[in-house]
Amino acid sequence: MLKTQGLFFGYGMNFLLIGIDSLRADRLGCYGYPRATSPFLDRMAEEGVCFDNFYAPGIPTQPSFTTLFTGQLPTTHGIVAHRGRWTLDVQAPFLPELLSRAGYSTVAVDNLADHHQGWFSRGFEQYINPREKGTFPSCHAFNAVAMEWLTQNRTKPFFMFVHYWDPHTPYMPDLKYRSLFYEGDPTTENEGSLAPFYKRPLMDWWSTRWLDVMATEWPEARGKQITDIEFVKAQYDSEVRCADEGVQQLMGYLDNAGLLDDTMVMVFGDHGEELGEHGIYFDHHGLYEGDIKVPLIVHLPITSAQGKRVIDLVQHSDLSPTVLDAAGLPRPESMDGRSILSLLEGGSREIQDQVLLTEECTWMAKWALKTERWKYIAARAPDFYGKPERELYDLHSDPGEQVNLWEEHREKAAELEIQLEELLWRRLEAAGRSEDPVLTHGITLGKKMFD
Q1: Structural domains of the chain, count
Q2: 180-206 residue pLDDT tens
Q3: Is 84 exposed, middle or buried (0-12, 13-18, 19+ CB in 10 A)?
Q4: Is the domain of 319 the same as that of 381?
């Protein structure tokens, strides 16, 4: 391996990427949350590098992980929704393929290829799905598979991707976690706090898919209706704690096996989760901060990458270029992202635009532009939550995005709309696209529900 400014990089370094589904940044202690949901990740952040402004440029899971593995933005790869009409271009770069060609053992412990789109298996020599239809195994079930593979594959450097589903809906933590953050009777307390949820659009679909499972599996419900939203939030937090212990278990295995000192570990969320804010319950859409701002914590076994906080804007598209950089491999020109290795060392990188352009097209068809202060959201089609066509938020005075300033600040809204459209079409044209994929794609799940 090559030594660069105190870091050893090149062929021989291992890579472990742990994606935690539906994990908001602000539910971890290292991002300011007061509950003890993440003691290990907090320590990992203190000893490694924590990114304060890590964002998803496309949600939910399919666009997010496609962006991660291709190093391309949704405007380039075109995957903007779940189960959409488009498939990934076979010429698009894909991180596991590039590493496999370079001699790495590549393995995924995940279900994206089996339950979502087949391109997620590209380049993985082994793709292991611990989930069976209708089951929601915890991170520990994924770890058991991952650790067995690591035990049997020690002959060459590895790239491993592990996808935890805690804390994705339904929130059903193991029994030992259930009472960590809640005391009381959730069927009698705080009555009315979940009334808007039970009246939400498409409740029949939601109930048969998730709510009935929750009611069956939550022993606290005892066949009754849950009335306290704080109970549901507590179960989400308990799932976060379970995922935290999962990361600790897997990294502990690497340490005991003598592998941790040669392994870069990235722990991140694919997207966040709305927990009642904005009238959106236990799901991930709207392009609010709770949806798109996710954690990124990086472990590198050298002292120069310890205890750092990075405030630069970083996106999922930057992770593949970073892995390639650390492996001593070139970044394909078709990747939009840029390596963050220099940020890990406490330095800077080539000037990056601190403006985020992000999209969703599964339940809602929207683009959003985020600057350091402002968030502007533009809907391409009506959404079934009845949100306005245009939203403008001052993130300095209103970080929770509760006051839509579109009427009050029409000039600022118009300025940001122009900026959004110019950036969007510049990127689309650079990718050889003549149509907005959010429009041509259609709202996949949302349209099905409307129809």
Answers
A1: 2
A2: 999 888 888 888 888 888 777 666 666
A3: buried
A4: no
